[in-house]
Design goal:
By secondary structure, the protein is of the alpha/beta class. The protein contains nine helices and five strands, in the order ααααβαβαβαβαβα.
């Protein structure tokens, strides 16, 4: 019994150490280390949901805080998000075997007429890092496609992105189309992008505005009551 207890405690300590190392690898943006540590932890029977909650989500929370405090900038955040994504790609198929459910489903896309996706992609990774399931519709997305996706996935949250002042009106048209479809009271809508402001978000009747990817993840959690 003594030896059994000792080895159980040793395994737990080692697992905790692996999770902390995984968390730090993601914060550092070291995708290769994140992959290796994820594989090691799985080999040691650490549950995928533990790795996601205590490793990936915890790491991206640190990254978001560092960004908001001005300690890191978009390139570092992007590298960290890619490291998180590398680990998530291994863990995601294993989640089907567990009872872990995503925080919620987000429909995300760059609005019609706009082909920019770097900001949207970073928001996507930050949302995934916060525990959301993200349905990425890509760029140049027509209002009808957003409506179809809301119905298809039963999503409660929609994220609209625009980088050009000339495509900001597509956000308005998309929200109006969702209203006309009768789905507006079923979803929360958040908007963002370089030319978008909080005043504009209020004007087009969005539920929230985020100036960057880190705060988009925080906003999404708030809108979903997490």
């Amino acid at each position: 019994p003594f030896l059994h207890g000792f080895f159980a405690k040793f395994t737990l300590l080692r697992s905790n150490s692996n999770i902390e190392e995984l968390k730090q690898a993601i914060v550092d943006g070291d995708a290769a280390a994140a992959l290796e540590l994820t594989r090691q932890a799985l080999a040691e029977q650490v549950a995928p949901e533990v790795l996601i909650n205590q490793g990936l989500i915890a790491a991206m929370a640190v990254v978001g805080n560092l960004f908001e405090e001005g300690e890191i900038f978009i390139p570092e955040m992007l590298v960290a998000a890619r490291a998180m994504q590398a680990a998530l790609d291994i863990l995601k198929p294993l989640l089907a075997e567990t009872d872990m459910k995503p925080v919620g489903t987000v429909i995300l896309g760059t609005v019609k007429g706009d082909m920019h996706d770097i900001g949207k992609n970073l928001v996507k990774m930050m949302l995934q890092g916060a525990g959301f399931e993200v349905v990425d519709l890509g760029t140049d997305v027509a209002p009808e496609r957003f409506i179809q996706a809301i119905q298809e996935y039963g999503a409660k949250l929609v994220g609209l992105s625009a980088l050009l002042t000339t495509t900001m009106n597509s956000m308005r048209l998309t929200i109006e189309a969702i209203e006309q479809s009768g789905l507006r009271d079923k979803v929360k809508i958040m908007v963002g992008g370089a030319p978008v402001t909080e005043a504009f978000a209020a004007q087009i009747r969005a539920d929230g505005y985020a100036p960057d990817a880190s705060r988009a993840a925080s906003l999404a959690k708030m809108l979903m009551g997490v």
